[in-house]
Amino acid sequence: MTIPKTVARFNAHVTNRVSRPFAGRLPGFAVVTHVGRRSGRTYQTPVNMFRDGERYVFALTYGADSQWVENVMAVGGCEVRTKGTAVRLCEPRIFTDPDRRLVPGPVRVALGLLDVSDFLSMRPAPAQF
Is the pLDDT reported for residue 13 higher than 80? Predict the structure, then answer.
């Protein structure tokens, strides 16, 4: 189960606009910059993101079929702004983890209450010169 798409649509039009300016600076949050696979437009989407060693792990609270996830999968990566720093990520991989073991304890509990067990992981892209 994930958060209903009606909530996702509301958040896309209202909540994301409010949270976008500061989500890239708060722990546990990031702003994903991705390109629409049909429109070619650039989007910025606030998300829940956590580190697991070198990997960046995203809780897919609206499911793996969310537009931002499909856009990232289509091009093989994205850029995230986290703690005020931009990082280019690559090699997206969607996986299910019913134990939610890659996220902090309090987040694990909250995601458990929402029955969220789908995640996306990526690693930093090699530096380009």
Answer: no
Give the residues across from 49 on adjacent strands: 58
pTM over 0.85: no
Query: pLDDT at position 29, please?
Result: 84
Greater confidence, 17 or 35? 35
User: Dihedral (C-alpha) 8, 14, 17, 23: value to the nearest 10 degrees?
Assistant: -60
- The CATH T-level fold of domain 5-124 is Pnp Oxidase; Chain A (2.30.110)
Delimit the domains of the chain by residue range: 5-124
Burial group, residue 49, by CB count within 10 angstroms (0-12, 13-18, 19+): buried
- pLDDT computed for residue 87 by the predictor: 94
In whole angstroms, give the CA distance from residue 76 to residue 78.
7
Say which amino acid occupies 13.
Answer: H
Strands (E), 70-109: 77-82, 85-96
